[in-house]
Design brief:
The complex is a heterodimer of chains A (666) and B (153).
Chain A: H1 2-29, H2 33-62, H3 69-74, H4 81-86, H5 92-113, H6 119-143, H7 167-196, H8 201-232, H9 243-268, H10 272-295, H11 308-332, H12 347-378, H13 387-404, H14 418-424, H15 426-443, H16 448-473, H17 479-488, H18 491-516, E1 518-524, E2 529-532, E3 535-546, E4 551-561, E5 564-569, E6 572-576, E7 581-585, E8 587-591, E9 594-605, E10 611-620, H19 624-641, H20 649-656, H21 659-665
Antiparallel strand pairs in A: 1-10, 2-3, 3-4, 4-5, 4-6, 6-7, 8-9, 9-10
Chain B: H1 2-12, H2 27-37, H3 56-70, H4 75-86, H5 101-137, H6 141-152
Classes of the chains: A alpha+beta (666), B mainly alpha (153).
Amino acid sequence: MIAEFGSFALVLAFALSLAQAGLSAAGRWRLSPALSGAGEGAAAGAFICVAAAFAALMFAFVTSDFSVANVAANSHTDKPLFYKITGVWGSHEGSMLLWCLALTAYGAVMALAGRGLPMRLKSSAVAVQGLLGVLFVGYTVFASNPLVRLNDPPVEGHSLNPLLQDPFLALHPPFLYAGYVGMSVVFSLSLAALIERRVDAAWARWVRPWALAAWSLLTVGIMLGSFWSYYVLGWGGWWSWDPVENASFMPWLAATALLHSATVTEKRGALSGWTVFLGLVAFTFSMLGAFLVRSGVLTSVHAFAIDPARGILLLTILGVAAGAGFAMFAWRAPQLTAGGLFAPVSREAALVLNNLFIAAATAAVLFGTLFPLIRQATTGDAVSVGPPYFNRTFAPLMAAVLVMLPFAPLLPWKRADLLGAAQRLWAAAGLALLAGVAIVALARPGDAVSACGAALGVWLIGGTLTELVERVRGGGAKAGEVWSRLARLPRGTWGMSLAHIGLGVFILGAAMETSGRVESAKVLAPGDSTTVAGYQLTLDRVAPFDGPNYAAERASVSVMRNGARVCSADPERRFYPANQQTTSRVAICVRGLSDLYLVLGEPRAAASGAPVWLVRAYWNPWVRLIWAGPLLMALGGLVSLSDRRLRLGVPRRAAHAPAPALEAAE
Amino acid sequence: MKRLLAIAAALLCMAAAGDPGDQLRNPVQEAHARQLFREIRCIVCQSESIDESDADLAHDVRQLVRQDVAAGETDAQIKAELVRRYGEFILLQPRFSLANAVLWVTPFIIAVAGIAVIAFASAGFRRKARESAKGADELSPAEAARVRTLIEE
């Protein structure tokens, strides 16, 4: 009964999305606040209905109602409650429902909270968001309904893929989808701006909080996914340029470029066409990601729910939505007015270069991801595009961005003095050089790439701190004044600095991890020892262990350093009878910023017949920075979001004054 | 079925190449072989290199590469042999061939073309700035005539 109620709510959500699009469009056409208000109400209704359907599915999972096909395929009575709940978005159907939930939630928030927006722009944006809802909720209702019943319900479910039964992966999709779909608001506002022929500083200010929120959530989502593959897949890697990883990375890159170009549009009224273009691109990449991941056209370690027939449908949705967006762009963009002029050396110019190189690097990711398909379609050859390609294209292009980065905040708008900025950065440059030389000399001689990475990381952190110090001490402030100046810095500045420092922290961690990683694999019998990176590991014993829905072999490994016990680690090999799968559970001994990472391999028979195990151990120096960096970046996004100038109420006051004049002029 | 295969492949590809029994005696050669492993795909896995994969085929290819490295073959020879056996699909780094030119060149073309556009635009900016500076100093004949009439009045 609850499942039928959910199905009904989902169909109702589809109808309400249609109403949202129709009423808002009519409200815009006839300039009727009543019709537009009804459209906004429909947006809120669509969200409530999708939330009800989502709750119905969750109820079916929690009560193990195997007459619902999706529950039978992805759940099991023995599964812990937490994974019953997260199983809701573990399958294709469930994850698309999560997508719809996020899409309608954003639509409802924009409709109800965006009071500062001018009526025409808002009605158009709500209508576009409604059309997106029609496409995606319609897809869920007609092609991938997660609440469909089975005629012949099984007694027991197939359970969720054990690799997905993990606390980090449970959190990863909600963050990722909230980020992906957050770009839909940016898309709607961009399209609405093109419809209204209004792309100006005020518009950029309205787009910015949405882009910031989506970008921050996407950053956390990608980081969680990377952390998951680091400790679940069992080989210690955290990024492999896999198609699914690339699919989540492309919207992030586009959103990063958008945040920077929107700053120029907001502060100087320039680059408006480019900012709108990026707003369309970011959500297009989100949809492309959903298509690539769900259709299975690309092979990936992360593709858990694939289906070619649905792929065609998703491709059609992508084509319709993106096609309409870019057609409108091609039509209206030439009519957009060019904004303020700026000199070749200025903050605007630095941000243009940032966007140019990020765009080129994104093109490398896009081509690298799609090229196997292109070759297959044109010449029929199967080719692979793997990490070596991205290291040779994406990395140098992004390195160019990173080298330029510390300059930009030191350059004033309109016209700047490059030499002056360079003079202020000499200390950061010196430190960066020192870090690079230290890596070459100490950690791994001859590893130029890691040395450059470490130098870049230090350069970013040092350069950003330089800018903060300049702001606080500029003009010879007294000691007492420093703190009050620091406290008075706008939140936006703090957010930017945090995000840039986070990027530096990440780069530094990535460089240290790749240059200093030590690996060892030894066949050990209980009582045997091995050493890795100065740590002595002793396999004390391997004993059977029964989990809630798996049987495991659990090893106890004591870790010693200089004769003192440091920690004990318990890597496992788990067997899940419901899925007939074996997985390995990594044990990580955290040592400050670094990890000692242990994997228990398969048992073997020694010459004497006694069982022995292959134990792999990795020393991953500074690897924690790889997760800390993105967290700092997301925190920066949130701090910037809390800036007084960005709060939703503020544009209302700003917008009211010039609005009548504009309306009269039209 | 395809989904089951995908999961099975993901599970097979779960550990690494460092099995102590397989390693080459010469540590320099072993390190070089490991370097090469990262550029060779495990062709039965889901986008993983043979360095990361535990699949039987990945193991076989690793042993093949180790033998070739020990025999002193060059990287190019080893890769050519692998491509002959398994096709270009096995190389994680696509070759610099005409068919792959689009892939390798596009990102850099975008960067270079963008710089050209920016240079062009900034030349336009300089010209405009010069003109407006000139315009501020000198009056056009019409303006000069208007100034004269204003003064005379």
